[in-house]
Structures are given as C-alpha cells and as structure tokens.
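User: Predict the complex.
Assistant: Input components as received:
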Amino acid sequence: MIEDVKYSMPVNIVVAHGLEAKALVKMLELERHPTSTEFVEYSNSNKLRLLVSGIGKESVAAAVTYLGEQQAFDDGENRAWLNIGIAGHRDAPLGSAWLGNKIIDQSSGASAYPPQLIEGVEVGSVVTVDKPENLYPLDAAYEMEASAFYAEATKYSTAELVQVFKVISDNLEYPISEIDLQSVPNLITAQAPQILTLIERMSEILEQYNSSQRLPSHYHEICSKIRLTVNQKLQLRRLCQRYKALGLEEELGRFAELKASDARKLIRLLAEHIDGVSEA
Amino acid sequence: MFSTIYIEEEVLESERVKNLLGRFAQVPQVICDRYGEVFNRKSQNFRLQKTAPALILAKKYGRKVLTAPSGYGYNDSKSYYFSHMLNCVYDCRYCFLQGMYSSANYVLFINFEDFEEAIEEKIEENNGGGVYYSGYDCDSLALEPVSNFCSHFLPVFRRYPDAELEIRTKSTQVRCLLDTEVVSNCVIAMSFTTNEAAVQWEHKVPSIEKRLEALHKLQLAGWNVAIRFEPLILGAEGLAPYETLFSKIFSKLDVQRLHSVSSGLFRMPVDFHKRIVKLYPDEELYARPTETENGMIGLKTAKESSQLLAIEKLLLKHISAEQYYRCA
C-alpha cells in the first residue's frame, strides 16, 4: 500500500500489542529487526520505525524512551511520533477512528492538546485509563497508553509532530470482555487511508521542519577537522546557519579548507567575515 | 480559517462564544480548562503552528489595561495598551510576537465587558484622557468579522471624547468602520514597509495598494488615519524604495488631514530574538549582524543613523514636522 511512496518518512510508530502491529507491518511494508532488544521492532527503507511497547503507560513510556535515546545522535534530525491502537467508546461504531485532539489522563486529571495541523483525518478526545474501562462515561476513546506516550514523545520532538490515532474496538453493545482479538488487525487495516494520510502529512511537516534546521555540510567537515568545545560548536553552528541563510555557503567552504588548528581563531575569522560582508 | 477552536469551559455558555461557535460549526471544538494549557505549553513550534493556527476562546484575568512602553506613543499624554487578542493572522517575519509566544494560535479574550470596565477606570484616573493603543499583541482589525472588536469598543471611546484610541493594523477589514458614525477620538494607524520588505517578509498581508485604498476610504468617510512606517529595515537597497513608498502613500491620501506619521527601527528584546533565530535559522533577516543595547537587539548597520536621517528627510518633504514622530 505504501509502495508508491519514494520519499523519507522518519516516523516512529508505537503500538501496544502485536496484533496492532500485524496490520501495520503489512500496510507499511515493514520488516522485523533482526537485533534482539526488549521490544519487537520493525522498520523499512523509508525510515519508518514500528515498536511494540506492551500494554499500559509504563510500557509505552519505556518504549518511547528506548527509541528516542537510540535516535538522539542518529543524524541530528527530528522525527515524528505516532501512537496507533485500539480503544473503546460508549457508542461509536466498531472500526471508527480518530486522531486525538485532547488526551486526558484519568488518574492525574491532566489534559494534553496535541496541536492539529493535519486535515483530512477525523478528530476526537482520548482518555487514558490505568485499567480497562467498561462504562465509557465521556465522549472519548478509552485506552491505556496515549497520555504517557504523548508526555514522553514530546521530550524528543515538537508537539505538532506527536500524535495519537485510536481505532474503536469495543463499546457498550460489544463490550471489551467480548473483543475478538483476531479482528484487531482487520480494524486497523480498514483505517489504512487515514493512517497513510497521517503518516504522509507528518512526514511532509517534518521535512519542512528538518530542512529549515539542516546545517551546511561544511559544519560537519570543520567539526571533523578541528577540536571544538561545546560552546565553540554552538558558535560554529550558528555561524554556519548564518552563512547558509545569507547564501554564502561557498565562502564557508573556503574556511573549511583552511588548515587552521585554532578553533577560536577560525570562529573569529568566520564571524568577522560574515559581519563584514552582510553589514549594510 | 481555524484548524481547531479551543474553548475555556468557563466561557462556554457566554452568548458571544455561542454565536461564534455557531458560525464555525464545521471546525473541531475542544474544551479546555484554561487557555494557558494549550497556548503556553512547552515543546510547541510557532513556525509549524503558523501553517494551521487554531482559535482559543478565553477569559482574560488580571490587569487588562497596561502602561505602554516608553516612547511608544505620539504625544506626552499617558499611554496605555490593551489586548483583547494575542497573536496575529498575518505572518511577518520581523514580528516580535514570534519570539514572545510559544504558540501561533490566536487567543481571543471574550470578556469585552471586563476590558471596557478596565478602560473606563483608567480613563477616569486620567480625568477623561489618555491614549489607548489596541493592536500591540495582535492586529485589531484583521479578525474583526470574527471578534466584533470595533462594534464593542468604539462606543466606549465615543463616550470619552478626550481619551484617544489608536487601532494599529495592516488589515483592510474596514467595513465595520465605514458602516459606523465616525468616532473623532479614534485613529486608524496603518503600518507600512517598503514594497521590497513587504514581499520578502510580510506573508498573508494585504498589498500596499489595498491597504492604501482602505485608508483612503476611511479618510473620505471622515476617520482619523495615521501612517506607521515600521519596522524600518535599513539595508543595501538605499533610499529608492522609500521614495517610491512615500510618493505612493502621500499622493493617495489627504496629507493635511493625516493624524500622524511615525517611523520605528527593527528592534526587539534579546530573548525574543534568540527564540526567533531557533525557529528561523534559515532566515536572511536574522542572519544579519546585530547589536544589543539595554536588552534590545537591532540590526547593526554601519550607517544606521545617517540612513534614518535621510529617510526622515525624504518623509518631511511630504508631511510637516508636527505630524511626525520617531517611535522608540
């Protein structure tokens, strides 16, 4: 289903259960990671990652932390985070689904509001509970991971790129005790159009974000040649951004070729040059 | 128009909110406790949110009328500002709001009556006078069809003829004003930059011609109008763009009847600048050399004072010195 997509989709998808993963693996053409970790992992060449966290807030928080820490030094680029899973609602039809625009953590009473930049996907509230809910008092999708997922994932990415998508698997007519687990992959698969829209739009927003933050290659070149303190790296980073913004990347290249061994001197030269060139 | 409408539970039953929600029934609505839960959260990105802003309907607590920063106004009267709204529908790259708020969503405070009371108190304190600026944290007119700001606040100032209201804007939404009897102590102050600056940095803003047309209509209808040349971003392009801009504006309007004309340089608090640089590291304006003075950052230009004087000289060919002031 995702075969036409040629561009990068650096989205981390986290699900609680292997049955939720099953449908997504097929839909997104993912392959199981050979390396053995505490979590079952899948990925594809488009940079999509899928992690099966296990059920509940602690499990999902641990999974997000695991993936976030692992990717922290990957390539310096941000990633989007998406929690997909089944949920209950008092009267929504089985198989209906929505993106959470409000996540209420039932035990703490705290609410979070994932910013909504994506059109074309249904939206609604989500309540995260510590134990399965049978009465569904609010007009919301009841599930067990979203609040912890959101709180944890926003430590690694900006809130606009952290979303939760819930598919209704039980309601008052078809209670949670009677869920046919084998139907879960079908419920998720039926939402393929919305899920694909979501992943594609998140990828587009992410690319917009990452491209604005991307550093010129000369930055990495200079860093590999000269020993820099943390503070000097920050100064160099901003100088490289300024050169790029002013269309002076080529001149930056000339500095990268210099055999300067003194980082302080190089930074001073870069600063003096750009200030001299760009000052009106 | 809005990606989502967030509504504070406390204002849910207000008539103003009910009317507004009725007009945007197709927009997803989310109830929140306090607007800060949505607006002030960390880990938000102003730049990304600007692509699909939400509207937040809230009640303003605390002080509603604040003392204007020194040097903001055009005369020596006591000056104040009030903000019935936070954030602006336009997307001007030089705007300080990008560094002031973590969210690009629009907050509309709907307790207009409380603002009215606070304004009246302040006017009474000033023996019926004072200058009151609207449009410091937002564009007062741009969201008029949604907020009905003018319909509420113009009658307040009509009752206090010695107090002055300045509505700062870049909007052409002047229908509400044209449909109202002129309020003689109200000034519509339109901001302009050169065409080159507008093309480069003012996104979603009506063209200079359309803004000018709106001002012209207002002037013909008898409204006080003023011109704000802000921010002046001096650069290599020289004076020619200013000559063009001034000729265009002052040939269209009745210069004698202009309330005032001001200019102000590109300046903002250092912290705001830092946050904007993080949002827009690829923006040419923020890659230019800067200089800091008293916590405010501006562009470092070798000939800033001489360029500013040259622009003022040009300006004073069109207007009288009494009409002009330099905004600090």
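The mean pLDDT of chain B is 94.
Let me know if you want any component modeled separately.
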